[in-house]
Task: structure prediction
Amino acid sequence: MTKQGTLGVAVIGTGRMGADHVRRINEVTSGARVAAVVDIDAERAKQLADRIDGCTAYTDPAAAMGSPDVDAALIASPGPAHEAALLKAFERDLPVLCEKPLTPDADSALRVMEAEQKAGHRLVSVGFMRRYDAEYLKLKALLDSERFGRTLMLHCKHRNVSTPPGFTNQMMINDSVVHEIDTTRWLLEQEITAVTVLRPTPSSGAPEALSDPQLVLFETSGGSVVDVEIFVNCGFGYQVQCEAVCESGSARVGDGHALVSNTAGRWGGDIDQDFVTRFEDAYDREVQRWVDATRRGTVEGPSTWDGYAAAAVCEAGVRAQATGARTVTSLIERPALYR
Ligand code: NAD
Result:
């Protein structure tokens, strides 16, 4: 911990998410400061560091994590770079908030989980931010209370305005549906045991080679069924909805009815256009909770196990998408550190 008792954070990767987290730690979060920024694009890192008192720019994550000013790391580089940065953080016993995905596949996630177990204690929180969204937190509290009885099904929608060039069918699972994979596991406290993917005739607005939309079905260890509409070029907005159907009631989040206007013979409201605004509060709460826990010397939130399980379900999902067949997931036994 630095002199003032604030947590010195190294933000690794300063693209869209990383730069937003730098702004957040600098302007919104209490008890932390950005001590270092790291990017393989040296100019990008320097431009950010120059705007923050006492912040040093690096191009090498290991060098930043070796600085005496750095007490913890927030990893926001692309998924394939996460494993190397995580292993370096473990060598220095640094707590880490790692943007999703933990790593891009189950094998690399397993290597990270083994290294964390060798360190002997949890160091990683994974940035599955929906767990910090006010609406999702209310839904979770309701389901945990069992006021409506057992949860039978979840109906989820995940819509994006459009995708960048090069976005693939596999990315619909690995980058988008991965959030529903985590929310399903978190809300139901069950593992996903099988995945099926149905692909209707693509929308005329879908880029060539992208089968958009798709319907993804999960079966869970407790016998629940979850459907996810994933439609990443819907054109009209960013919408994330989840309806839980329970034995004696249902509950839905994500309607986006914060402001309803009436004018010119119509009523309506605005639809978020991206995750940065829809989940702004969730990102703020996620980073604040991570900073608070780290300053107390504890680790909370989605674990390396959650990151591994999500990666394993994604792999089954990508296979199901390619074959059209119901695909059973395969997880190792949950290690003691994560029980
Ligand atoms: P981006 O491409 O905008 O930025 C990535 C940055 O990392 C770039 O500046 C790049 O130069 C830098 N970089 C690449 N390799 C690096 C390395 N080895 N070390 C340090 N820096 C490196 O990507 P993004 O959209 O900001 O995504 C970053 C991470 O955040 C990804 O893991 C992504 O999945 C995740 N993400 C999470 C959410 C969410 O809702 N939780 C949303 C978007 C992205």
Q: What stands out?
A: The chain is about 35% helix and 25% strand.
